[in-house]
Amino acid sequence: MHVHLLTFMFCCLKMYYSVQVFDGEFTGQVVINTTNSEGFIDRFIKKHDGYTFQKRFQIGRHEYFVFEINETQRTRKISKQTEDFDIKNLKLDLEIDFVNQEKRYRRIAKTDDTEWSNLWHLNDDVSPSMKVNEAWNAGYTGSGIKIAILDDGLQTDHTDLDANVDTVNDYDYQSTDDNPMPDVGDSHGTKVAGLIAAEKDNNECTVGIAYESTIIGVRILGTSGLTDSEEAQALNHHLSGIDIYSNSWGPTDGYGFSEPGTITKDALLDGITSGRGGKGVIYTWAAGNGQTSDNCNGDGYVNSIYTIGVTSVEEGRNAWYSEVCAAALAATFGGSSNNRYLTSTTTSSGCTSDGIQGTSFSTPIASGIIALALHANSALTWRDIQHMIVLTSSRNGFTDSYSSWGTNGAGKEYSQVLGFGLMDAEAMVTQAAIWTNVPTQQTCATSTFTGSGSTSGSSYTTDIRSISATDCSSITYLEHVTIDISFSYTEYRGVTEFYLVSPSGTESHLMHYRYDDAVYFDSAGSLSWTFMSVHFWRESPIGQWTLKFKSYRGLSVVTVSSWSITFYGTSADPLPNIDQCISSPCENNGTCTNNVYSYNCQCTDGYSGTNCQTIITTVSTQGTSTEPLTTEDNGISTTVVVVVVAGCVVVVIVIVAIVIAVAKSFSAGATVGPVGVAVVWQ
């Protein structure tokens, strides 16, 4: 009783003292990396007045020192709009290798509304399903897998979660304490947690996909905003003990180009390099809810090769809130007001079906599926997981409301919104159990291309660059492709559009028209940005790459001053043991060709269909014949074909009106329409 009361009072105090931050405000916090850590704190304070030491932390091999500007020792206050005047002096200190006066940025939960209805995403009430039940039936529950939930907090004593919560290693980076309990009214992280690790068969609320995994609450979201160093520490929090970091947050949707800071980028690199004993931790990331009028390539977190961008589907199509996203690897169900929501845990030990929808909730579902795969094979690397998602996810009949699905040069279907399609838990654990680790990743960067020119009106401007085998001999099979573009615009930045086309003809929409960005940034400007696409997975980089760019409706003049491409992939086949023909029924009645991501059947005579499953025989009225029975009566040809499918006989009557007969009908003054109808149905 007393514990709950204290928790409630503590949450109230945290909420009461929170102050809303404006995006990009300077703080009084200065982060420093030095060439000589020994005794640095004392030397720094002696040399530089007006600073108070706060703490030190480590990201990879780099040790950072955090100092707070002491305003009581200053003649003027800290400005929130401009960098402190003394930072230039710090940069001249030969002992300081890196210095940054930190800014705070708004980071928001990637969700819309707050209601979920039932467990349709698990109980096969929709088709296609994500086949979670099948993975459970194979014995995989996420046992032994640890997942950090970076969000607005976690109710660690929730009665449907507490058995799976690690309360020893959790943390709150908003309040800098070891209690990740959320502020009153904040329940996003607790809902995310339920999708991953709600307990099974305990007669409470719901069940998580990885219902025997361990979750760790890491509170990072709040009204105080978030600095670069705080993000970095959270993304490396308890690095030695985490398998998956589930991130259902990011920059504001709709407009802007926002990327991780310098230290956060180092943290992501350290995570995939040092995490899980060198196999690399898995970073899942919500692709965003800006709808198809937004593009996730403006989000530098989803846009990183080290993260797995996850988007959402609703029944039959991409979710209404899903963004155009060349960086999205795959999709899961995320709830939708167009049909139905999901169900999960919420604060005060509750259970809710309260309208929650968004890529926020697709992401923990993906994290749960990945946990099942890691349960099946703990030796999987961060890149193994990405290859496995590409291999096992598929279109499954979902439509893309922005554009048509395409097939890349490796024979894999892809969408500009849904990546490679819906994730499949059964296929993930099946592949995981027999998986061979992919080869070491290779990198190949082109030189910087210049002189691409400017747009004219609304037409495309293209720049074609040829990559030869000598330019990029280390890569035969592509994974990620990044493209660095420096461009300027005369007005309305959001009307700028970029498309990259591979030698195989695969087109990836790196950036398309974004209305809100055009409104927010309506004057002339310039930008250098790194775009990323997964659409060229397994293709060869050799050949002509084309950058296409234009201004939507010619509303601006866009000039590309320079661009370059970086290829990531392998020289050896990363999937040498994948043979789709092994389980293909066309082997019995035809020849199967393995395309790794799919297969084709060349049927033998007398068989047809995708898998050569249909037997075609022909009969006459006197019995079976090797030729179709054809009769003619006044120019009308009738063919009787018997098709045997799975032991059932179906008689198809094909009636053809010969052109001569039609001509005779005209000459006789007959009405063709009624005659045609009568003939067809006789």
Task: Note down, in words, how this protein is organized.
The chain contains 14 helices and 35 strands. Helix 8 (359-376) packs parallel to helix 10. Helix content is 20%, strand content 30%. The model is unreliable at 1-19, 112-117 and 620-682 (pLDDT under 50). The chain has 4 domains: 22-104, Alpha-Beta Plaits (2-Layer Sandwich), CATH 3.30.70; 108-433, Peptidase S8/S53 domain (Rossmann fold), CATH 3.40.50.200; 442-570, Jelly Rolls (Sandwich); 629-682, no CATH class.
Can I get a quick summary?
The protein is about 20% helix and about 30% strand.
Descriptive key words:
Alpha-Beta Plaits, 20% helix, 682 residues, six-stranded antiparallel β-sheet, 14 helices, eight-stranded mixed β-sheet, alpha+beta, 30% strand
Mean pLDDT: 87
The class by helix and strand makeup works out as alpha+beta
* Uncertain runs: 1-19, 112-117, 620-682
How many domain regions?
4
CATH architecture of the largest domain: 3-Layer(aba) Sandwich
**How many β strands by DSSP?**
35
